[in-house]
Amino acid sequence: MIPPHTALENYFFRAFDISGRATRAEFWWVTVILIVFGVIAFVMDAYTIFTAPVTNYNPMAYLTPFLLLVTFIPSTTLMIRRLHDAGRSGMWYFVNSIPIIGPIWLLVLLVLPSDTEHNQWGQPPQDPRAARTFDQFNGQGKAQVSDSKPHDARQSYATLLRLEDDPSPEEVAEQREQISDYYRTRVLGRNSTA
Asked: What is the dihedral of CA 38, 44, 50, 53, to 10 degrees?
């Protein structure tokens, strides 16, 4: 199960990404966090309205409209990725426009379990064996399964903290070998053993 901090991180960093999948845990962690922030913003706005000597009619003077503006696009794309994870098209999001039963229908679709197999939107996110390979980024292959662990966002932060450190001679040699191998195979089109 995805932890709340990773779900929130994916929510903001994948705000404009409608491809891919989002697990139930990722969706519901973000939903609970947004509900908590929404209640806090509403209470603060109500306190401001009731204690102010003169009512301010500017909607941007309150937190609730600001929160709705900031979270509208990421929430929509998260719902679309959640629908993808359940094996449905993102167009099912528009079932929400049907009065009364539309929001209930969308809620049922969002609660559906994840599709356990590879579908047209990718591997199941909870599959720890699903790892991206370099060929996937070039569009030259399907997702390949390896025994590596899934990406942990904390590893990226640890790498950023080490930016000031000088790399060891072994790391420099390994990076040079990777770059030259990439140049030989991808740019020159030669075999890597040549």
From this structure: -130
Residue boundaries of the structural domains of the chain: 1-115, 168-194
CA separation, residue 152 to residues 9, 42, 148 (Å): 11, 34, 11
Phi-psi label, residue 142: left if phi above 0, alpha if psi -120 to 50, beta otherwise: beta
* Coil/strand/helix, residue 172: helix
pTM above 0.90, yes or no: no
Among residues 84, 93, 101, which one has the least CA distance to residue 24?
84
How would you write the pLDDT of the chain (194 residues) with one tens digit per residue? 788 888 899 899 999 988 888 889 999 999 999 999 999 999 999 998 888 888 788 777 889 999 999 999 999 999 999 999 888 888 999 998 999 999 999 999 999 888 888 888 887 765 443 444 444 444 444 444 444 455 566 666 666 677 777 878 888 898 888 888 888 887 787 775 54
The 8-class DSSP code of residue 184 comes to I
Q: Which of 127, 158, 105, 125 is nearest to 29 (CA)?
A: 125
Q: Which helix (H) or strand (E) holds 145?
A: strand 144-145
